[in-house]
Design a protein that fits this description.
By secondary structure, the chain is an all-alpha fold. It contains five helices and no strands. The protein has one domain (10-81): lambda repressor-like DNA-binding domains (434 Repressor (Amino-terminal Domain), Orthogonal Bundle), CATH 1.10.260. α2 runs parallel beside α5 (72-81) and α3 (45-52) crosses α4 (56-63).
């Protein structure tokens, strides 16, 4: 019988290292927050893209949660473009 592996999160399961998992987790969280702002503001994708300084296809990737297509740097730039400040906090593992 094959042993079943368990992980603390999906990011831990798909990442090769704890560092990669942490990066994926941070990007996903930031993307979710940006997507929530877009939804709360009632912006269509084209308007959100303009406000965020990206193309409409890129906004579509963000709203669909395509984490692998965004760096933390790009997401910080997008958040700043819509008038938000990104705050980073460290927690004990």
């Amino acid at each position: 019988m094959k042993k079943i592996e368990t992980y603390a999160s999906v990011w831990d399961a798909i990442a090769d290292t704890p560092e990669q998992a942490a990066n994926l987790r941070a990007r996903a969280e930031l993307m979710q927050q940006i997507a929530a702002i877009v939804k709360e503001s009632g912006w269509k994708q084209a308007e959100a893209a303009t406000r965020c300084g990206v193309t409409q296809p890129r906004m579509n990737d963000l709203l669909r949660g395509r984490v692998s297509r965004f760096s933390l740097d790009a997401l910080v730039n997008i958040a700043t473009a819509i008038g938000r400040r990104v705050h980073v906090e460290l927690e004990a593992a």
